[in-house]
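Input.
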Amino acid sequence: MRTIYAKAAIKPGDKEGAEKIARAFASYAAANKGKHVKIDYFAVSLPDLLVWEQDPDERNDAFCDYVNGLAEKILDEVRK
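Output.
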């Protein structure tokens, strides 16, 4: 959702606001990539475990790569 806000901020010229969001994305990705994910087995996470038979650490790294990619895309648009 914040990606939409960042892209929307670029249109009227609020490139600073969009860049702030992009840097927050990049910061989150850098801080969380490579971290060991501990599953709490709460009812909300159980369906994920049953449906996705993927290593949670790999899934976390993939998500961090995705978030970092969003940050790079936003920054590319800001620089145009």
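The chain has one domain: 2-79.
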